[in-house]
Input
Amino acid sequence: MRLDVVSIFGEYLAPLQLSLIGKAQTQGLLDVRVHDLREHTHDRHRTVDDTPYGGGAGLLMKPEPWGEALDAVLADPPAGARDEGPVLVVPSPVGEVFSQRAAVELAAEPWLVFACGRYEGIDARVVEHYRTRLRVREVSLGDYVLNGGEVAVLAITEAVVRLVPGVIGNAASLTQESHAPEHDGLLEHPAYTKPATWRGLDVPAVLAGGDHGAVDRWRRDEALRRTASRRPDVLAGLDPARCDARDLAV
Ligand code: SAM
Output
């Protein structure tokens, strides 16, 4: 998978060299390229922003550097790129709220390009233009406002890259966690490790009983209960066809 990230703060993206994402690069599973938007300016001050038409507070990112920077990235496709090109991911508080489902979809792509906004965001014509050439996804981390898209890119890439085959050693762990489609999108059950008793709190006896069927049932029940109390919206979307009679009793 290739990831191209365009930003005016490339240093913010240094964590992409660490941990599992860094290791995936040394293993050849991932190729991450960070590009400086200011390389595509042509004035002495390397200006990327200007005042908004219509007035108002703050500055907006100008479209010309973005057009040049993204065209330069698109002119250098990786081997195996799709005919329709990469998905252009534009972090934005006005985008679709990022989810595990979106992470699964993006992890199936061979090439993702990220455009990190700053200031009051990017001139709207940039997204409008690239929508005519590419698949564009404006993606929000949630209903709050960050200073820039870099933190969103770190979160999105971490969620996506761990789903790329080979990145996580034990692939089964990906299907047994919160929000996983294989787990019906439920929140994960409570989990425990040794010791069996800590500060007067015991691990539920069923988990140490050796009855795998009973353990599976307990985990499913706890996942359903947790989801019902913390995320009733998720539970409401549960497909009844995926439930058995004992699920419905919880
Ligand atoms: N004026 C914009 C608005 O009100 O929607 C906010 C711009 S924000 C200060 C600057 C940049 O931070 C955005 O262009 C985007 O790249 C990033 N950003 C801010 N909040 C975000 C969020 N919730 N999710 C993803 N990216 C975000």
User: Anything to note?
Assistant: The pocket of S-adenosylmethionine is lined by residues 91-94, 116-118, 120-122, 140-142, 144-149, 152 (CB under 6 Å). The domain at 2-161 is CATH 3.40.1280.10 (Alpha/beta knot).
